[in-house]
Write a structure and sequence with these properties.
By secondary structure, the protein is mainly alpha-helical. Helices cover about 65% and strands about 5% of the residues.
Length: about 500
């Protein structure tokens, strides 16, 4: 039986407390075990296997979406014609589909491989910065990150952009604090490679610039700053030269840039909420803990990672009132958030005591359970977090009679899934071109159709028969997908 204390409360028996003590002892012994290279290698190998499974599972199951189709048909953006500025990721995707043929799987093969390789590649510089325990926790959080998973299964450039951006951030940090010119040059090279993917990488310029200013103002930093001032100025000059090299074509045709991207489409609140959703709330909370904990022992790393985490989003929120923005543009900050979250998780484990162990373990488990549960929804109910064009056009193919037209506001996607040319909504007059002919018409509508063609959409919804609803409901977002049928001979009769 359990004994009672002087207040009459039950005290746990020795047998009952033994499992808790064993668990606590193993938790406390974990940091020492992680000092062994073999343990680190085995742990990293397991984490990479998890990352590979997640990124290749159902890789070809999801429909192409609009931006992926732009990659497939190689639509230029007006600025990236030159070899120096052409995205390496997009070029690789085109080379792969040139060899293997066009499919969802082949188009996403290169991004999936980069997504997997990012885990071990980034582990080593993070280990150099903060040690093996934090690096392994970071690798695990990166492997299960829903945001990283999504872009690893996308025929776009974001996953390679993130890898190069993070390597540039870390090597520039090493170059500054270890006085290694080779690391500084590597950082500039990776920044150039990241900027080659997209100008979003230039978020790193204000990050590094503000980092230099803040660290120079820290108490006790003046001597160090004086010693490194020449190096710092040269590095800043290098950053500005890289930025100018890649931004010059856009600056020369600023009017063309503003025509394409000058229309505001988001609010600061919407951007912030979207980024928070993709990062996941437990990761953000742990990252805040990590920033505070790191500042006590590695304040320069804490400052740099914090700036890299928040500056891209702050810039996007500021320009959202007059410029096109999207929360995916803050994707470059993901690794900084995850490194800080790993540091926060590690700090909680280190502070574990007999009375505080279970709350700390609960927070750590939440940091993993939450993204894994989101991954599960991604694979099961959320259709890879995108429109279900594939099912919509499969239904049209099944029911369509010869000669019946297919209309949508995404003609390249429609033509790909129909296997023949289709009609873009912008190329017809509604309702005249729909009602005048003798053949019936199929209209496939996504969530952007009402925004781009409100009058045409309203007519279709009033007059055509709704055949199928294939909406994909996510938290805070509904990927609308509807199939309509209109038969002029029957006045829009049933099908």
């Amino acid at each position: 039986m359990s004994a009672q204390d002087s207040a009459g409360r039950l005290k746990p028996s020795a047998a009952g407390s033994a499992p808790i003590e064993r668990l606590r002892a193993r938790a406390l012994a974990l940091p020492a075990a992680l000092d062994r290279p073999r343990v680190q290698f085995v742990a990293l190998a397991i984490i990479v296997a998890i990352a590979a499974f997640l990124r290749f599972y159902k890789l070809g199951a999801w429909s192409f979406w609009g931006d992926e189709m732009l990659t497939i048909i190689d639509v230029p953006d007006g600025f990236n014609y030159e070899l120096l500025r052409r995205s390496l990721m997009l070029s690789t995707i085109l080379a792969v589909i040139g060899e293997l043929g066009v499919s969802e799987w082949s188009a996403r093969l290169a991004p999936a491989l980069v997504g997997v390789l990012s885990v071990p590649v980034l582990y080593f510089p993070v280990r150099r910065m903060l040690g093996p325990a934090v690096a392994l926790l970071f690798a695990l959080l990166l492997a299960v990150s829903p945001w990283h998973l999504y872009w690893s299964q996308n025929a776009r450039y974001y996953i390679l952009l993130l890898l190069f951006y993070t390597l540039a951030l870390l090597f520039l940090y090493f170059g500054l604090h270890e006085r290694r010119i080779s690391f500084s040059l590597l950082g500039l090279l990776f920044l150039a490679l990241a900027t080659r993917e997209r100008l979003l990488a230039l978020f790193l310029v204000p990050v590094i610039g503000s980092y230099m200013v803040i660290t120079a103002a820290l108490p006790g930093s003046s001597a160090g700053i004086r010693r490194f001032s020449a190096r710092s100025l040269l590095l800043l000059l290098g950053l500005l030269l890289v930025a100018l090299l890649f931004a010059l074509p856009y600056l020369r045709d600023l009017r063309g840039w503003l025509v394409g991207f000058g229309a505001a489409n988001n609010t600061p609140l919407w951007l912030g909420a979207g980024v928070l959703y993709y990062l996941r709330l437990p990761v953000v909370v742990l990252a805040i803990v990590g920033a505070v904990a790191l500042f006590a022992r590695e304040r320069h790393a804490a400052i740099l990672l914090s700036l890299s985490a928040v500056v891209p989003l702050l810039v996007l929120m500021i320009i959202s009132s007059f410029h096109y923005t999207a929360n995916r543009y803050a994707f470059v900050s993901l690794t900084s958030w995850l490194i800080l979250a790993a540091a926060g998780t590690h700090a909680l484990i280190r502070q574990t005591t007999r009375t505080k162990m279970w709350p700390a373990l609960a927070i750590v488990m939440l940091a993993l359970v939450d993204p894994l549960s989101e991954d599960a929804f991604y694979f099961t109910f959320n259709n890879g977090n995108r429109d279900d064009w594939k099912s919509a056009f499969a239904l049209v193919q099944e029911r369509r009679e010869p000669g019946e037209r297919v209309i949508s506001n995404h003609e390249p996607i429609a033509s790909y899934y129909m296997g023949e040319p289709t009609v873009h909504l912008a190329h017809i007059t509604v309702p005249e071109d729909i009602t005048a002919g003798e053949e019936a018409v199929w209209i496939v509508q996504d969530m952007t159709m009402a925004m781009e063609y409100p009058a045409q959409t309203a007519w279709v919804e009033r007059n055509a028969q709704l055949v199928a609803v294939l909406d994909n409901h996510l938290y805070g977002r509904n990927y609308l997908m509807r199939v309509y049928y209109f038969d002029p001979a029957a006045g829009g009769g049933e099908r």
